[in-house]
């Protein structure tokens, strides 16, 4: 696993500063709970991949207490993952999040299966925006560039570039 050093996190802080109109400096971006949660996830995942599941959980639970964001150490997370606000986010063990994803507070990437060997959680494509309070369940895919509306409950794949809203979510014509 490639270790992510200060230069990597500098670039991530710069990305937050570019993305968020409410952020007034790169230094401020370092305070974002989303960035802190990702840094802690990085350490937890290193332990997880070494098979140190207890130690990995110690770190991820500390991350949850510190930021209100719960990321399972097994989750695979790409670059420029922008978590805005963050409180109440839950990201399950077999989730995959690709690059330049934006996620607001209260989002759940959850499982519906209890089979420990299966991929139980969603795969989020590049450049996806997931609105506040959205719930995405099961081993489904959100295609590149798709948008998931605030409050949506997504139970089926969302095609690339589509917008999904509602409970259960439907694809809306733009
Ligand atoms: C889904 C979303 C991306 C769509 O934005 P948009 O492309 O500009 O779409 P519009 O606002 O033109 O809405 C299109 C239709 O979808 C409906 N819609 C939009 N967002 C919706 C949502 N979250 N849930 C249910 N319906 C929604 C609108 O009522 C409209 O329906 P209509 O055609 O019957 O009038 C946006 O509404 C959204 O939910 N963004 C999340 C942002 C967020 O969570 N911000 C938190 C910041 S703290």
3D structure, described in words:
This protein has 174 residues and is an alpha/beta fold. It is 29% helix and 21% strand. The protein has helices spanning 6-19, 26-29, 33-49, 53-67, and strands at 70-71, 76-77, 82-84, 90-91, 96-97, 102-104, 108-110, 123-124, 129-130, 135-137, 141-142, 147-148, 153-154, 163-165, 170-172. Strands 3-6-9-12-14-15 form a 6-stranded mixed beta sheet. Helix 3 packs antiparallel against helix 4. The longest helix is centred in the first third of the chain and has 17 residues, at 33-49. The chain is globular. The mean pLDDT is 96. Bound molecules: coenzyme A. Residues 85, 104, 131-132, 147, 149-152, 163, 165-166, 172 line the site of coenzyme A.
Short description:
The protein has four helices and 15 strands. The chain has helices at residues 6-19, 26-29, 33-49, 53-67; strands at residues 70-71, 76-77, 82-84, 90-91, 96-97, 102-104, 108-110, 123-124, 129-130, 135-137, 141-142, 147-148, 153-154, 163-165, 170-172. Residues 85, 104, 131-132, 147, 149-152, 163, 165-166, 172 line the site of coenzyme A (COA).
């Amino acid at each position: 696993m490639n270790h992510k050093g200060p230069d990597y996190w500098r670039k991530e802080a710069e990305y937050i500063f570019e993305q968020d109109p409410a952020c007034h400096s790169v230094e401020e971006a370092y305070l974002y709970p989303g960035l802190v949660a990702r840094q802690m996830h990085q350490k937890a995942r290193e332990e997880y991949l070494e098979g140190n599941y207890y130690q990995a959980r110690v770190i991820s639970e500390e991350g949850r207490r510190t930021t209100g964001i719960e990321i399972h150490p097994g989750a695979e997370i790409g670059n420029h993952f922008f978590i805005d606000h963050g409180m109440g986010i839950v990201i399950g063990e077999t989730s995959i999040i690709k690059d330049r994803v934006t996620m607001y507070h209260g989002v759940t990437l959850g499982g519906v299966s209890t089979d420990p060997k299966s991929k139980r959680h969603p795969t989020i494509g590049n450049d996806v925006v997931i609105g506040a309070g959205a719930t995405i369940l099961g081993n489904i895919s959100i295609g590149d560039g798709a948008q998931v509306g605030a409050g949506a409950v997504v139970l089926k794949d969302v095609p690339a570039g589509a917008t999904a809203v509602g409970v259960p979510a439907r694809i809306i014509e733009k």
